[in-house]
């Protein structure tokens, strides 16, 4: 079965349309203010209205408080919440219980022990997204175009559904799926011309390449 596709960090109507035209499965809306892909509530609301129910809308957050989650979920009619910070299993479970949406917990990966850590979220999240661990002094915890050693996922047995992120692009996504068996792939900077500016041709090329495996 083809890997599902999430295009993250969409911030304009035109690039949202490219994602819809390419029939990606999920679109990511970023609610982390320091990100170049960050959306205000009014922008997110307008994009969500344009997308309607044609695609699953995933909100990306970094250690959000409940007010931030409530406002974004309501404005963007989110279908899932992606927790991309240091959220513990208890916090992840609390978000899920309070807001009644599936929680995607991001596990930053640099070593084999990071992959093992995902098991702690078995009863606290609905989906695990493995992403490259960014350096301690990095500006962002994601969306940096960094990849990790995909070999760390070799033979992986997960109790939760999972996906792969980190440095994926139209040129390497097919190889990434072939190497890891990832059931979902996620990209942000790999389909951009400069940070925060999505490229419609790259979005189409990414989706085509992901489906070629
Ligand atoms: O994209 C961002 O700016 C961002 C900022 C803070 C937390 C997460 C962020 N992105 C989340 C994603 O799901 C990205 O798609 C994922 O990190 C992969 O990014 P990239 O390596 O650029 O493809």
UniProtKB/TrEMBL annotation:
Reactions performed catalytically: N-(5-phospho-beta-D-ribosyl)anthranilate = 1-(2-carboxyphenylamino)-1-deoxy-D-ribulose 5-phosphate
Keyword entries, A-Z: Amino-acid biosynthesis, Aromatic amino acid biosynthesis, Isomerase, Tryptophan biosynthesis
EC numbers: 5.3.1.24
Start and end residues of each N-(5'phosphoribosyl) anthranilate isomerase (PRAI) domain: 5-208
CDD domains found in the cross-reference section: PRAI
InterPro entries recorded: Aldolase_TIM, PRAI_dom, RibuloseP-bd_barrel, TrpF_fam
Tagged with keyword Lyase: no
SUPFAM superfamilies noted in UniProt: Ribulose-phoshate binding barrel
An example molecular function term from Gene Ontology annotations: phosphoribosylanthranilate isomerase activity
Pfam family, one: PRAI
UniProt pathway annotation: Amino-acid biosynthesis; L-tryptophan biosynthesis; L-tryptophan from chorismate: step 3/5
Keyword presence, Nucleotide-binding: no
Similarity comment: family membership: Belongs to the TrpF family.
PANTHER family: N-(5'-PHOSPHORIBOSYL)ANTHRANILATE ISOMERASE (PTHR42894)
Name the UniProt record assigns to this protein: N-(5'-phosphoribosyl)anthranilate isomerase
Organism, scientific name: Qipengyuania citrea
């Amino acid at each position: 079965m083809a890997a599902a596709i999430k295009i993250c960090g969409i911030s304009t109507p035109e690039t949202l349309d490219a994602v819809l035209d390419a029939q990606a499965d999920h679109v990511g809306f970023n609610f982390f203010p320091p990100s170049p892909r960050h959306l205000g509530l009014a922008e997110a609301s307008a994009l969500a209205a344009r997308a309607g129910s044609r695609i699953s809308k995933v909100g990306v957050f970094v250690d959000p408080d409940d007010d931030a989650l409530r406002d974004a979920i309501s404005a963007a009619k989110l279908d899932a919440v992606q927790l991309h910070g240091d959220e513990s299993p208890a916090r992840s479970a609390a978000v899920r219980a309070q807001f009644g949406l599936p929680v995607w917990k991001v596990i930053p990966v640099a070593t084999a022990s990071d992959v093992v850590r995902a098991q702690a979220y078995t009863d606290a999240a609905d989906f695990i997204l493995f992403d490259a661990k960014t350096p301690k002094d990095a500006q962002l915890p994601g969306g940096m175009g960094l990849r990790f050693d995909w070999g760390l996922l070799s033979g992986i047995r997960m109790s939760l559904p999972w996906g792969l992120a980190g440095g994926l692009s139209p040129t390497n996504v097919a190889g990434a799926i072939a190497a890891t068996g990832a059931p979902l792939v996620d990209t942000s900077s790999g389909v951009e011309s400069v940070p925060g500016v999505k490229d419609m041709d790259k979005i189409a090329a990414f989706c085509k390449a992901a489906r070629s495996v």
